[in-house]
Amino acid sequence: MCEHELIGDYYRGCQHFHGRYYSGERVDCMSPKCKTSAAHVHNPNLGCRCATIVTNRNKVQSVIHAKHPDCSE
Fold first, then answer.
1. Starting from the edge strand earliest in sequence, which strands make up the sheet with 54-64, in order?
2. What is the mean pLDDT of residues 18-41?
3. What share of the chain is helix, strand, coil (3-state, %, to 5)?
4. CA distances from 55 to 7, 27, 39, 45, 64 (A)
């Protein structure tokens, strides 16, 4: 599965990672059956039923010692 780098903040108060934006960095899985891979075997516009398998690779930009506002309720 291909990985896309997600930049965000880690909140130690609630121990959650909250992503803010994608950096554009990508790690290709080189699988012929992955629609987002450069090694994909056929044109995805021709009724391709291959799975789009993408995961996030979280990269912490800031560590915040409080809870995220969504978690502090």
1. 16-27, 2-11, 54-64
2. 89
3. 0, 50, 50
4. 13, 10, 17, 22, 24
First to last CA, the chain: 36
Q: How far apart are CA 68 and CA 52, in angstroms?
A: 31
Query: What's residue 44's pLDDT?
Result: 58
- Output the pTM of the full model: 0.74
Cβ proximity of 72 and 20 under 8 Å: no
Give the pLDDT confidence of 33-72 residue by residue, as tens digits.
888 888 888 765 667 888 877 899 999 999 999 999 988 7
Which 3 state secondary structure label does DSSP give 30?
coil
Residue range 4-29: average pLDDT?
94
What's the rounded Cα separation, in Å, for the pair 46 and 26?
A: 24
Domains of the chain: which residue ranges?
Answer: 2-64
